[in-house]
């Protein structure tokens, strides 16, 4: 691990300035991904700005919704009474992620900033455009069974690893950030990026911008929800593929639907056309199967991940079926 400076400011403005002014500085909170990246020599910051002393860990009612501070721990959010009652999909997605130990360290802000688990990204002997722009992509012709089926480019086919982010994009969350130019609100669907020609950039955050909170608007998705995660072992594994499903059902008719997938793209993948296809339909297997077909339009597999083309629709149907019977 390279040597680095370490500072612990108590004011947000001081933290932002410390990172904005130094091209080799970065924020650290729980450190559950960043420290791994540093140990392996993938991230080599020369200054760590520890933000754990900033007052950003509250979960509170705000603007007809929930505001969750960026430093709230994943475990705390998943166990919070308001979150479980008002946004149970988020609680389920958080509990599907990582392990109990990691959820007790990892923060909400850090969770959405975690980097891909593409094995070539972590292997310094292999080319990787995300780690070293212009070096190539080891996964394109490599073992790409964990990789994307939507939204990829010829520069990168990695997927975003967060479970929490799949629920947040489905729930129309907004990310609140403060930076050198002031505050701004980023719709969650615009927070992460597709790889295009710049896969080294995971998000639309600018240098020095600090995530302060996430806003989730109240909605009708308090009963019929389900986060379905398919993985290779029962816990502490990243998703091969996941589906966040939320329904508003009245007299067996779907009034509104939310659907998003994880493990399929460089960002959490919202399925708006499939959502629309469900509105006004009965909550039946046939409706769910039709939505799954709509959802998978445009999917394209690589040599080792063609199984996702079948696993995707089956997981969507299973998530919707379980959500519809969840109340
Ligand atoms: Fe790197 Fe992306 Fe290729 Fe993985 S898929 S090796 S992260 S460029």
From TrEMBL:
Swiss-Prot/TrEMBL keywords: FAD, Flavoprotein
Matching SMART domains: CO_deh_flav_C (SM01092)
Highest taxon of the lineage: Bacteria
Domain FAD-binding PCMH-type: 1-221
GO terms assigned for molecular function: FAD binding; oxidoreductase activity
UniProt name for this protein: Xanthine dehydrogenase YagS FAD-binding subunit
Species this chain originates from: Hymenobacter chitinivorans DSM 11115
Origin organism lineage: Bacteria, Pseudomonadati, Bacteroidota, Cytophagia, Cytophagales
């Amino acid at each position: 691990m390279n040597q680095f400076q370490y500072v612990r400011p108590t004011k947000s403005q001081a933290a932002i300035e410390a990172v904005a002014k130094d091209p080799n500085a970065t924020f650290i909170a729980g450190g559950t991904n960043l420290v791994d990246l540093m140990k392996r020599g993938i991230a080599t910051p020369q200054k760590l700005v520890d933000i754990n002393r900033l007052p950003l860990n509250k979960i509170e009612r705000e603007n007809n919704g929930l505001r969750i501070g960026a430093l709230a721990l994943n475990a705390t959010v998943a166990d919070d009474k308001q979150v479980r009652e008002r946004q149970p999909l988020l609680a389920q997605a958080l509990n599907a992620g990582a392990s109990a130990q990691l959820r007790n360290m990892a923060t909400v802000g850090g969770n959405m900033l975690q980097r891909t688990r593409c094995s070539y990204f972590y292997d310094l002997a292999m080319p990787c455009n995300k780690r070293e722009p212009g070096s190539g992509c080891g996964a394109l012709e490599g073992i790409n069974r964990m990789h994307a089926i939507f939204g990829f480019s010829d520069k990168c086919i990695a997927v975003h690893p967060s479970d929490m982010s799949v629920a947040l994009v489905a729930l129309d969350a907004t990310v609140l950030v403060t930076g050198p130019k002031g505050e701004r609100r980023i719709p969650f669907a615009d927070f992460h990026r597709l790889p295009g020609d710049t896969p080294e950039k995971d998000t639309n955050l600018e240098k020095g911008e600090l995530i302060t909170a996430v806003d989730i608007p109240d909605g009708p998705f308090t009963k019929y929800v389900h986060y379905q995660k398919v993985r290779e072992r029962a816990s502490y594994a990243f998703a091969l593929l996941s589906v966040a499903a939320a329904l508003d059902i009245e007299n067996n008719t779907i009034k509104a639907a939310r659907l998003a997938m994880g493990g399929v793209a460089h960002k959490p993948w919202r399925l708006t056309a499939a959502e629309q296809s469900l509105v006004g339909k009965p909550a039946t297997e046939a409706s769910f199967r039709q939505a799954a077909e709509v959802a998978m339009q445009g999917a394209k597999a690589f040599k080792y991940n063609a199984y996702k083309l079948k696993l995707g629709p089956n997981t969507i149907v299973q998530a919707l079926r379980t959500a519809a019977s969840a109340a």
